[in-house]
Design a protein that fits this description.
The protein has a single domain, classed as HUPs (Rossmann fold, 3-Layer(aba) Sandwich), CATH 3.40.50.620. About 45% of the residues lie in helices and about 20% in strands. It has five helices and five strands, in the order βαβαβαβααβ. Helix 1 packs across helix 2 and helix 3 packs across helix 5. The chain is an alpha/beta fold. The longest helix has 28 residues.
Length: about 150
């Protein structure tokens, strides 16, 4: 059965264990609706904006990019097991902004996001990605609490 509401579902991940539940919910909804999944990992390059660009910065950047690809591979594997097509993208920039822009540019019908793995001081300094997406997206957002 295909849904008229959900043809394209975006699942955002930060690679933390806290997003596993959001991946399961998003993938199951996609399977039931007959939707395609667009998996997104955003490399928060703004967090490194004040650092000098040198070999250490480039190594850290590549390490984070690899982490993102591994997080997306997890979603891709779940999709294969569920028979759901998955398109993966690693983006650079502020996570909430990049997720909303990607969703708009790709005609996404639903954004699925977990309460991403930021806690403590990181959450206070960076704010909540999920909260920002909810407040800035014209596209429906499903937030899954870990």
């Amino acid at each position: 059965m295909e849904s008229e509401l959900y043809n394209k579902i975006l699942i955002a991940t930060d690679g933390s264990d806290n997003t596993e539940k959001a991946i399961r919910y998003g993938m199951e909804l996609a399977r039931i609706a007959g939707a395609d999944v667009y998996a997104v990992y955003v490399l928060d390059s703004g967090a490194f904006a004040s650092l000098p660009v040198d070999a250490a910065w480039e190594n850290m950047y590549e390490l984070l990019r690899t982490e993102g690809k591994e997080a997306l591979k997890t979603i891709e594997d779940v999709g294969k097991g569920s028979g759901v097509p998955v398109e993966c993208s690693v983006l650079d920039g502020h996570p909430a902004h990049e997720i909303v822009c990607y969703a708009q540019a790709n005609d996404i019908d639903l954004i699925v996001i977990g309460t991403l793995g930021k806690t403590g001081l990181d959450r206070i300094l960076l704010g909540s990605v999920a909260t920002t997406i909810i407040h800035t997206s014209a596209i429906p957002v499903m937030v899954i609490h870990a």
